[in-house]
Write a structure and sequence with these properties.
The complex is a heterotrimer. By secondary structure, chain A is mainly α. Chain A has 13 helices and two strands, in the order ααααααββααααααα. Helix content of chain A is 71%, strand content 1%. Chain B is of the alpha/beta class. Chain B is 46% helix and 14% strand. The N terminus of chain B is likely disordered.
């Protein structure tokens, strides 16, 4: 009895030692390069800071005075900063909340379709559909900017070829579809195009993990394709779906390169001004990094809250 | 395939790569090391020193700077200048992150209207009196570009370029000929220009394919607004010289005029041609603009990006309102020096070599096709041999003033003026509402920048 | 791998039955997929087509879909541009991407293992902290990160890209998900056999991680290869820069040479495509073996 307990505690101790020895350097490393900057970012929200102004200690104080909670209050006031902030929040919400269903509605059926064809064709299709994801977002923004160009872009070219008129896709803020400005929709389409490869591959893997026997049993029971999809495939994909939903939203909240390179300066009438773009502009163009950091904090809270809600709503199930 | 065997090989391979990576990370590639000594370390005279210089990535600017650097090297063999350039869109990021770490370059080619906020913040070095005194600078340079580099009576840089948008317009001569308008056009008033522009408009059904007079762009609207207010006898600044006054009758008259040209005279369609669509710099060289409001700095860009644009073009004096021409200009590209540089004196010598030496400045202006900030270069009659389109622009140089400290130049210029005027043209608001909105937005931003 | 059955009908061939409805179903599926492929590929083909156009044709209105006289002039311009050390760019990118990927694979698998299979005080808090580091926009941490790199004397140095990238929160997250799927019994069995903790890692966990490592590897390689903003901040000298800088090389302040930019884009994407082709069959297998079921 005692030997068993002693052995177990020795085992536990060696486990703890291993965990400690392995994890500590890695965590310290991560905290140094990831957490320390975050702490700095939080600290400067309490200052009026810009590197273009001379400070005292570590760049703070002096020309970059301590202002307490003023940046936070500014965001919620009627000042131009507050207004731009609210516009940015709205745009970011529109972006993230439209990207998610659009992405899922494309990638999941697509994954199902790809899974249904012959093995060799599967590989071909998977590769082609993953190509956009492999491309740098800068390149994607440049290419799609050229595609949307009203005079010599591919989209208007194609439309005119079938007799439809072209239109200024990225520059007319007044045109809306269901209340969403068309430039924003264009950005969403481009983003989904680039991003769908990830989810596609994950869904395919998830589908492949569902044993054939389930489907065979369902067929034997007389279920048709739709019923099988809704009753068997979808519930079994729930852990996959959770991961996909969380990660898709996480990256869409933080998308910057696309809006910056393709639209620049928030687009016409600021319709594509997302929070991250606003952070960048406030920090470097308007030279208020303290305020920009405050906006980033707001974004951080939004992301935290929505991620927690998602994970709670889509609690993982491990057994089937 | 045997899983275990493969994974053992995999493991070894990964281990080797990790070790290689760590090794590579720790070894620094050979090359010139960047000086990281703090300020105040003065090397003994005539010792070899390296200056770092940064500029943005425009190919003609890069070539011009390289030529000047080579000449400086001949005159100063102990000084090496390490020159790097950055994409324009990321340039301010690079400058500001480096300033935070105090390791920015010794000499930076900055755009004039950025300079005042950096100078105010204390992150630029003053021009030493022995390099150039303020009075000397005022004698040598035009007021408009120079004042961008002045803050609280002190000089913080030397301009190379007079960024000019007003005074002359770019015309497509072929379109004029086809419309039967005599060249060169002589416009004694804006109405005359508008009359010609109307003849030059081309429509394809409802869509305007050629704009008669395209001035609806981010920069142009601002410049026309300042000029309009000044020429109508008012100031765009309020009485305190810090806030802006959009509520004066002159301000409203100017905006009304801008809006009417698009909406009533229909010389340009603000839906097809606006700050976000068919920007005049590209649309002109695509054959979509007959008269374009854009400064001569577009010429090298147009030539480079549209090398086979065949229509003959030229710059023509554009009219002004009232009796005396008066406009506001945006300063221009010039050289500033970092206060953290270990070789401030030498850096200023180099800046002066670039900007104040007539021969070098002239060569720089010709290479970049920019309007000279140095009076000696602009008054040089042979300049037109190299840049013959510059003649009308050179005439108006003395009538410009520096636009002034707008606190948040980009926001006020683009987000307020250009955006709101365009929206007014597009029918979103009346002129009165637009003036009130601009007044509120601009001054609110100014207040928040002042720490109010 | 178990192949999920054709969702629309019984599987022809394996049952030897041929009816009309499966055939129409298959035609429909294949046409949809091929149409989707065209949409997926169209911008690439457009990019390729633009890169093969001459400088005159690229600005012609109305624009042409395919180059009338395909020319490699853009590529030639890039290769012979005296200011573009293309070879150095490729070399730098390869060094950075390979190093970072290798280090991330190592640290992520180890950390993921510990988070997945060990219990200790504060585990959930630490893991939440790791997730939190993924939720802050890069722009605000850019300056403090740069200050740290400057203090480490790694500015204008490839190390400035490699060192901060060695540990990846995303990698740890992914690996933890995967390793959680490895049955605890295997690990307990190894323990009973007297294996040390590190021995368990090398002998039980690591051998099963091949496909997951390949997955994380390709994602990390892609991310590092395509990173544009951070290298631009850290690397100053042209010879030290990485390949994505070519994407905006031919942009001037107000416009760009589209043909050259498109050619540059092709050159940047090409190596990634090659790496992807080499690793792609591992990816699906890898993710399938993760704890997503």
């Amino acid at each position: 009895m005692t030997t068993g307990v002693r052995r177990r505690s020795r085992l536990l101790r060696s486990q703890h030692i291993f965990a400690g020895v392995t994890l500590t350097p890695i965590m310290v490393y991560l905290m140094f390069f990831a957490l320390l900057p975050m702490v700095w970012a939080v600290v400067i929200t309490l200052f009026r800071y810009s590197p273009t102004r001379q400070g005292d200690i570590l760049g703070l104080g002096g020309g970059n005075p301590f202002v307490g909670l003023r940046n936070y209050l500014d965001l919620f006031s009627a000042s131009p900063n507050g207004q731009l902030f609210r516009v940015a929040v709205k745009n970011t919400l529109i972006f993230a909340l439209l990207v998610l269903p659009l992405n899922l509605l494309i990638t999941l059926p697509l994954a199902v379709l790809i899974e249904s064809v012959r093995e060799r064709l599967k590989v071909v299709f998977r590769t082609i559909y993953f190509l956009p994801t492999v491309t740098s977002m800068v390149a994607v923004a440049i290419i799609w900017g050229a595609v949307y160009n009203p005079t010599f872009g591919l989209l208007n070219l194609a439309l005119r070829a079938v007799g439809l008129p072209g239109r200024p896709w990225l520059t007319d803020a007044t045109a809306r579809v269901l209340g969403v400005p068309i430039p924003m929709l264009c950005v969403i389409v481009t983003y989904v195009w680039q991003d769908m490869g990830y989810n596609l591959v994950i869904f395919i893997a998830g589908l492949q993990g569902i044993p054939e026997t389930f489907h065979e049993a369902a067929v034997a029971d007389g279920a048709n394709a739709w019923q099988r999809f809704w009753r068997i495939t979808l519930p079994l994909l729930r852990p996959t779906l959770t991961f996909v939903i969380v990660m898709t939203m996480l990256s869409s909240w933080q998308q910057f390169v696309l809006v910056d390179v393709m639209m620049g300066h928030g687009g016409p009438s600021n319709v594509t001004r997302t929070l991250v773009l606003h952070v960048y502009e406030t920090a470097f163009r308007f030279q208020e990094m303290g305020l920009a950091s405050t906006v980033a904090m707001a974004l951080f809270i939004i992301i935290m809250v929505t991620t927690l809600i998602q994970m709670r709503l889509l609690r993982k199930e491990w057994e089937y | 395939m045997n899983q275990n065997q493969l994974s053992r090989r995999e493991f070894l391979r990964l281990g080797a790569m990790t070790a290689a990576g760590a090794l590579l990370a720790s070894c620094k590639p050979a090359g010139p090391t960047t000086p990281t000594e703090g300020p105040g370390v003065q090397p003994p005279a005539e010792e070899a020193i390296t200056l770092r210089m940064w500029s943005h990535q425009n190919p003609s600017f890069v070539a011009a700077n390289e030529a000047t650097i080579a000449k400086f090297r001949e005159a100063n063999p102990t000084v090496t200048i390490a020159y790097e350039n950055f994409p324009y869109d990321q340039f301010i990021q690079t400058i500001q992150t480096s300033m935070a770490a105090k390791n920015e370059a010794d000499v930076i080619e900055m755009f004039g209207s950025w300079v005042q906020s950096y100078a105010k913040g204390g992150t630029l070095a003053e021009v030493p009196a022995d390099i150039m005194s303020m009075s000397k600078a005022q004698e040598l340079f035009y007021k408009a570009p120079l004042d961008g580099y002045v803050w609280e009576g002190k000089l913080y840089g030397l301009p190379n370029e007079y960024n000019l948008e007003n005074g002359a317009v770019l015309i497509n001569k072929r379109m004029f000929e086809e419309a039967g308008i005599a060249l060169p056009p002589k416009w004694d008033s804006w109405d005359a220009l508008v009359a010609d522009a109307k003849k030059l408009v081309k429509m394809d059904g409802d869509v305007m394919t050629v704009a008669g007079f395209h001035y609806v762009n981010g920069d142009g609207l601002g410049f026309l607004y300042w000029e309009g207010v000044l020429e109508r006898g008012a100031d765009y600044f309020a009485n305190d010289g810090i806030h802006l006054n959009f509520l004066s009758p002159e301000a409203k008259a100017t905006v009304q005029w801008l809006v009417d040209m698009a909406v009533v005279d229909k010389v340009v369609d603000p839906f097809t041609f606006n700050p976000n669509s068919n920007w005049v710099g590209t649309a002109f060289f695509q054959g979509m603009v007959a008269i374009g409001f854009i400064g001569p700095w577009i010429v090298p860009e147009g030539k480079r990006n549209y090398p086979d644009f065949a229509d003959p073009w030229d710059y023509v004096r554009c009219p002004y309102y009232g009796n005396q021409m008066s406009f506001a200009a945006d300063s221009g590209w010039g050289k500033v020096v970092s206060p953290n540089s270990p070789h401030i004196a030498k850096a200023w010598e180099f800046s002066r070599f670039c900007a104040a030496d007539a021969a070098n400045a002239r060569a720089w202006n010709v290479a970049t096709s920019t309007v000279p900030a140095l009076k000696a270069v602009a008054e040089d009659p042979t300049l037109l041999n190299d840049m013959n389109w510059l003649a009308p622009s050179l005439e108006v140089l003395p009538y410009g003033r520096y636009v002034g400290m707008l606190q948040d130049r980009d926001y006020i210029w683009y987000n307020v003026i250009a955006t709101r005027i365009t929206e007014c043209m597009q029918g979103q608001r009346s002129v009165d509402e637009t003036m009130a909105l601009m007044h509120e937005e601009a001054n609110a931003m100014i207040d928040s920048k002042l720490g109010g | 791998m178990a192949i999920a059955q054709n969702q629309f009908s019984s599987v022809p061939g394996s049952r030897g039955r041929r009816t009309l409805s499966p055939l129409i179903g298959r035609i429909l599926v294949h046409s949809l997929l091929i149409a989707g492929c065209l949409l997926s590929l169209a911008p690439f083909l457009w990019m390729l087509s633009c890169s093969l156009k001459s400088s005159t044709e690229i600005v012609r209105l109305p624009p042409t879909l395919f180059p009338e006289k395909p020319t490699l002039q853009s590529y030639r311009t890039i290769f012979t541009d005296p200011r573009v050390p293309l070879g150095r760019f490729y070399m730098n990118s390869i060094i950075v991407a390979v190093s970072v990927t290798a280090m991330v694979l190592f640290t992520s698998s180890l950390a993921g293992f510990v988070f997945a299979k060990y219990q200790f005080f504060g585990k959930n808090l630490l893991f939440t902290l790791i997730l939190a580091t993924m939720m802050i926009p890069f722009q605000v941490v850019m300056i403090p990160l740069y200050l740290i790199i400057a203090r480490l004397n790694l500015v204008d140095n490839l190390g400035g890209l490699i060192v901060p990238g060695a540990v990846s929160a995303f990698g740890i997250f992914l690996m933890r998900q995967f390793i959680e799927g490895i049955p605890g019994e295997l690990i307990d069995a190894a323990r009973i056999d007297g294996a040390s903790e590190f021995g368990i890692y090398t002998r039980v966990v690591f051998p099963q991680m091949g496909p997951a490592l390949a997955t994380l590897g390709i994602f990390q390689f892609m991310g590092t290869w395509n990173d544009y903003l951070w290298p631009l901040i850290i690397l100053r000298t042209t010879e030290r820069r990485t390949l994505p800088v070519m994407l905006t090389w031919y942009n001037s302040q107000h416009g760009s040479r589209t043909d050259l930019t498109m050619a540059a884009s092709v050159l940047v994407i090409l190596p990634i495509l090659i790496v992807y082709f080499l690793f792609q069959r591992w990816i699906v297998r890898g993710i399938a073996l993760t704890g997503f079921k």
